[in-house]
Amino acid sequence: MAEEEGLLLASSPNRSSLSSSLLSEISNASTKPFVLAFIVGSCGAFAFGCTIGYSAPTQSSIMKDLNLSIADYSLFGSILTVGLILGALICGKLTDLVGRVYTILITNILFIIGWFAIAMAKGVWLLDLGRLLQGISIGISAYLGPVYITEIAPRNLRGAVSSLAQLFAGVGISVFYVLGTVVAWRDLAILGSIPSLMVLPLLFFIPESPRWLAKVGREWEVKAVLLSLRGATSDVSDEAAEILEYTEHVKQQQDVDDGGFFKLFQRKYAFSLTIGVVLIALPQLGGLNGYSFYTDSIFTSTGVSSHFGFISTSVVQMFGGILGTVLVDVSGRRTLLLVSQAGMFLGCLATAISFFLKENHCWETGTPVLALTSVMVYFASYGSGMGTIPWIIASEIYPVDVKGAAGTMCNLVSSISSWLVAYSFSFLLQWSSTGTFLMFATVTGLGFVFIAKLVPETKGKSLEEIQSLFTDPPEDSTIF
């Protein structure tokens, strides 16, 4: 871990200059359609974060106002992941069938309906219905957002803009953590609908993905869309030709061995499927939803002020996300993943130690400080890498013919693992708080080993180069 941290620090001697350089590059590469598309992707991620961050600061007030039991609130927290599973089942087919832009429209409508259902809830059924609709929307958009941004961005900025867009998910979580301490839960739900309401008119002005257009046979539109994204004076001939040639190659392969959804399980996709599925499942199985949904319970159990804890956690998570965004195209995906996973391991381990000390009445004055620090380390580490990069890599490594199926599979694995943790977390805490976080520490530790041994670097390559590298590697080469 020290070696990886050294690499990270060595690659970022001046954070402010790197940040300025990144913004300058984005500005130089920007056109109005690209900026609008980036805003739409960012608002979608922000709405995602608001939904995830809603339940933790509102737990006490919702339970009191609606007279909910722990089991009732556990269902409210976990039914989001049931919706995730339902959304994951249809996300691939839906995005392939109607396109990226129309699918974004559908997800934002679901977000809006879900928020107003929660805001108007008088009983548990409408509360759960709203949360379920939000889960379906997240299940579709969690993979769609990174895919759309990845498919429209220039290769030298792909990691940065994808990570920056996904950073807004962390911003959404942080904003709702803070607002939840001062705003009533019904008002907070109404505020949550604002990002999706803002997105709706912008959808009429953003372009469709050029790679989706090539996939569905609208080749004549590819170059025009690229010109709108890169600028009318840009030379996009090589990029358009690469997209069209690779899409034609994929179509020819599809004609030979078309197997629908199950084509994804062919041997040539085994490595990329393993990488995508494991990376996306790691944060969930490493306790993310336990920390996100029940932060209030963690703070209360260890004697930390909830208001101070939520605000401190929000600040460090945003700082970690900003640092990760700046460095993702400098140090690369793999290094950030290693540092992020190592930090999450330390956070889980420190949380387990704080509960152990609390239960055994040892170092009672320092236990709240250790608990707060551990949660801050966990969220800062998550925001710097594991919060964004797994979805970026998953959106990069799959060819267009299996991207929909891969999106469905990645989302399903993420949703199921998320549901398992969200629903069981309260009961696990009652069984053994220390044991619960030691379990999460074990998962994050194994995840570090997996990344170190198997995950390749994708920085600086076109999508077509990355996908060829995974599915058609030369016999005398290695992808590491």
Outline of the structure:
Helices cover 79% and strands 0% of the residues. The two termini are 19 Å apart. The protein is mostly helical.
Q: Look at the structure and give the mean pLDDT.
A: 80
Described by strand count, sense and barrel closure, the largest sheet is: none
The span between the termini is 19 Å
Total DSSP E strands:
0
What general outline do the C-alpha atoms trace? globular
**Assembly type:** single chain
Strand content: under 5%
Residues in helices, as a percent range: over 70%
Helical/strand content category:
mainly alpha
Number of helices: 22
Query: What are the secondary-structure elements, in order, as H or E?
Result: HHHHHHHHHHHHHHHHHHHHHH
Rg (CA only): 22 Å
Low-confidence stretches: 1-29, 473-480
Q: Could you explain how this protein is built, in words?
A:
By secondary structure, the protein is mainly α. The chain is 79% helix and 0% strand. It contains 22 helices and no strands. α3 runs parallel beside α7 (158-179), α13 (270-285) runs antiparallel to α19 and α17 (333-359) runs antiparallel to α21.
Summary keywords:
mainly alpha, disordered N terminus, disordered C terminus
Topology:
Elements lengths: L1 H9 L4 H15 L2 H34 L4 H29 L1 H20 L4 H29 L5 H22 L5 H8 L1 H9 L7 H6 L6 H9 L6 H21 L12 H16 L2 H6 L1 H8 L3 H22 L5 H27 L7 H20 L2 H9 L5 H29 L1 H22 L8 H9 L9
